[in-house]
Structure formats: structure tokens, C-alpha cells
Amino acid sequence: MKPHQIYCKYFKCNIHANNMLSFIMAENYRVRTSLIKPLFQAYVLVIAGGKGEPGRLLYGCDSYGNVCGIQNKKIPDASLSGKNRESTPYLLYKPSGVPPRVCVENCPAKEYTSTVLRHCVLIQPHVTLIQQALNITRTFLRYLNPTSLYHVLSTDIALCWREVVYMCLIALGLACFVIILLRFIVGFLIWLVLLSLSVTSVVGTGYVWYMWQIKKKLLKDLSADDPRKSNRENDVTHWLVGAIFSTIFTFLFLLIIIVMRKRIELVSALFKEAGRAVAAMPLLLLQPLLTFITLAAIIVSWFVGYLYIHTAEDATVDPETDYVTFHLSTFFQVSLMKWYHLFALFWFTQFVISCQHVIIAGSVAMWFFTRNKNRLGTPIATSFYNLVRYHLGSVALGSFLVAILKLIRAIFKKIERQMKEHPTWCTTFIQCCSCCLWCFEKFLVFLNRNAFIEVAIYGYSFCKAAQKAFHLLSNNILRVAAINSVGDFVLFLGKAGVTVATAFIGLELVKDKEGVNYTWVPVSLACVFAYLVAHSFLGVYEMAIDTLFLCFCEDCERNDGINKPYFMSRKLMIFVENSKKALELEAKRRKNHGG
Known about the structure:
It is a single chain. The chain has about 600 residues and is mainly alpha-helical. The protein has 18 helices and six strands. It has helices at about 5, 15-50, 55-60, 130-145, 150-160, 160-220, 230-260, 260-280, 285-310, 330-335, 335-370, 380-420, 425-460, 460-475, 475-510, 520-560, 570-575, 580-595, and strands at about 90-95, 100-105, 110-115, 120, 315, 325-330. It has a four-stranded mixed beta sheet with strand order 2-1-4-3, with no helix packed on it. The longest helix has about 60 residues, at about 160-220. The radius of gyration is 32 Å and the shape is globular.
């Protein structure tokens, strides 16, 4: 299938061949441009891999440049380097000794203690910050349990591993149950939440006015020369101000619900349509698993690369003592490779998340614009193919913009921490800039999600898709507000419900388990898994809702339901202007088709 046939499958867009050729050339240029950065990043890591030695950072090295616990390479001009330290894995610090750092077989039991990373540190409450931290940690562990906290935690998890597996399976089942629940009773749930909030606001406002009346009556009972009168007057004033603000908030809240009731019903209908879409394509729920595995691989690779960059040091040998000192290479100092490496983490993670958005959006859009849902085909595979074949440049550009903002915020946060000891007006200015950048980043992430939906539907370039998405969102601002407020709150309730239910079930499972020191250890582990599962499943649901909303807006703009029939279902046709006539024509078409 040719590109213009893919993008114009559902709408008559009449794209000229030259325009389509220009689009493909521009998209290929963005793909080639997006490859420059990963290639340069690979070049940086190759240089760091040749110079770096993470063992110096993790396990430490002696004064002659030998890493403890491994076979070392020879350092030029250092006669005592290149030794085999496999039999002496611990690094011993001797502040007044010669040499000051030496690899030993075991740490001296009386004066030193070995840490997790095989460093021997003096047991004294002063001298260095590391020693103070160790003393605090040791005191905390002794307070919790005479044995090691790690041993206690591992023992509890080992004893309750079956219960943890059961809780994880229960969390998985609860997440699926919540998705089914949102499809069938989401309307009742939304109105129940809004009714509860309305009743709470009215009752709270009435209570504040009642307390104001009580305080006012008590004030009248006091004599003019009573010393408590001044405090009582302030108390009455505070209650009056609170009552006024509470009344205004309640009035506005009820007014918003009344005015937006039709749009809130649209949110309920979109939830039901999203449930139908996910039920038709259940493999969409596995997409977060692939994303999680990819992100985990990226983060692990980034951490390994950071260790190599941080230890890409040049050796300097003291000719008198033969001691070896290391300092960061000039290339990594001048080029600020650490910041570049951090930017790579931001970009790669955003790129993977954006790819998930495009795949889900493309699949749901294909489902929406297919009239015969029984002949849907393989929408997920088609969406993945379109992403790899046509949209990588747009995804790279959108994720690049978000990564730039995250990097700028990280730089500002670094400057703010350095200026914290001596605050000036510049510190306040940087804090304000950081706050503005955070708001702009949230807006850009929101715009990116909707732009990727347009990219998945039409194959637009990123800039054109962002412009189109912004146009649609601004024209339906009240509907967007209803979806982002009511919809996000309902999804949050779903995540919280899965996590809390898993916690209560887990407490019942492990409460009578013998040998368990802390029941919260396995329960907390299961709750973390439960929240991640719920967040992943409902994240797919959320993206499906956003996609269906933009598809609904596009369908309303391009079709009228009379001369051009809608693609939307009958439940969504209720929310268009000529819904009554469109529904009658839709019923006639179905009747004629059935006849």
C-alpha cells in the first residue's frame, strides 16, 4: 500500500503526488538527522570505554592505580601498577599510613568495617562525611533489628515469595477487572463521584456558616471590657471569610457541573468506546510490557555508560612516590559529556514512550475509522509498521523538544543547589524560571500526545500535526477540560483502588505467616507491582480515550452525518449538533443493509 493510500484510507484528502514525494523526502531527512545524535553518542561511549574503568569508582584502587579484586592493566611510567589483586578484594584507607590506600584480603575487625562496595572505613564518629553516614546507618539498623536490615528484608521476602506471587496475580486480575468495570459502569461511577463532591461541598459550606453563627453568638455574650473579645472578633472574621469563599467555590462547582453535564456525558461515552476498542484489540495491553523492557535496557545501558564516562580519566604518576592519581580527560571536561549523556537519557526514554503513544493511537484510530469492525485486520501490526516506516522522524523531533526542556530544568536545578548557601535575587529568578519551564514542559507533553495522534491518523509531519491538534483542542476546550479533569480523576481512582485492594488482601495473606519480621515488606513490594500494572493498563486506556476524542472531533469536522455518514458509533452521535437527523439516517442505512 502506497503512503498516500495509507494516510487517505479513511478521508478523501486528495494529496498531489509531488506533495507526497516532498513529504516522504522530509520524513526521511528527519530520520537521517535523528540518527546523527545516536551515532555521536556511540562515538562518545567508545572513547569512554577505552579510557574508563568503572572498578575504580565501584571498588576503589590503591595508591599505585590497581583496582582491588581484579587483574589490572599496566599504567605507563607506573612501575607498581598492573598487579593482580584478585586475592585482595578490599580497599583499606590509612590516613596516616604509607601508602594511604592499599588492597587487603580482609578488613581489620577492630578498627575498620567493610561496606557493600568492598571499602574498609574507620569506625569513628568524625573525620569524614562517609564515616558519619555509616554510623547513622549502623545505629538505624541496630534500632530496627540486631541483624542486618538486608538480611531481614531478604528473609521476609524469601518466606513470603508465594504470597507475593499471589498478590501480583491478584493485582493483575484487579487491573483487568477495573478496565471491564470502567467500560460498563463508568457513567454511574462518574456521576456518583460528582454527586459525592457536590454533597460534600454543600454540607461543608453549611457547616462553615453554622460555625460562624456560633462564634458570632459567643462574641455577643462577651462584655465590652472582656480581654478575650479581640481574639473572638478575629475568630468570627476568619470564619466569615471562610464561609464566603466556601460559598463561592460551591456555587461555581455546581454551576460548572450543570453547564458541562453534556460534556461529562461525553466523557462517559468515550470511556465505553475505549473499553470496546481495548476489548477488540486486547494485545494493546501488552504494549507497556515491551516499553518497560526497552526502558529498563536503556536505563541500565545509560548507567553503565555513565560509569565509563565518569571514570574516563588520565593517569598522572608521581616520580618520587610512584603514586598514581586520576583526573577526568580534557575531552570530557571541555565537551561537558556528562550533561550530553544526561540529555541522551531524556531523549531515548521520551522516544520510547512516544513510540508507544503512536502505536496505540494508530491502532485505536484504525478501529474507529473502520465501519465493519469484524474486518479490522491487524491494526497493531499495521500501526507498528507505519511507525517504523514513516513516523520515526516525527517521534524523534517531538521527544527531542521534551528532552531539551528536561535538560534545561536539570541545569537550572544544579545552579539553584549551588546558590542555595548564598541566596540572592538570582536564586529567586532561577526558581521562577524553573517553575515556568515545568509548566511549559507539561503543556508540551500534553501537546505531543495529541500531535502523535494526528501523526498516526494522517501521517502529518510533527509540526503540522501539532498545529492541527492545537486547533482541535482549542475549538473543543470545554470538552478537553472535562476529559482531563473528570477522566483523569476516574483513572486515578482505578489505580488507587487496585493498589489499596492488593494491600488489604496481602495483609490478610501474610498476617499469620510464621517467621516474618515485617509484614509491610512483602505487601509493599506487591503494592509497587500493583500500581505499575494498574498504571500501565490504565495508561493504555487513557491514550485510547484521547485518541477517540480527537477521532470524534475529526469525524465531526469532515462529515455531517447526512451527505457524509459519520464513522462514530450511535452512542457518540448523540453529542453532535444534528444528532437526531443523523441517527435517523443511520437507522435507515442499517435497516436497508440488513434487508
